[in-house]
Amino acid sequence: MSDEREPGRERPTSAADRRGRRTSPSSSGAGAVTTPGKGRPTPSRGAGAPRKASPFARLVRFLREVVAELRKVIWPTRKQLVTYTIVVLVFVAFMVALVSLLDWVFGLGVEALFGA
Question: Which residues have a Cβ under 8 Å from the Cβ of 55 and sit 6 or more positions away?
Answer without folding.
Answer: none
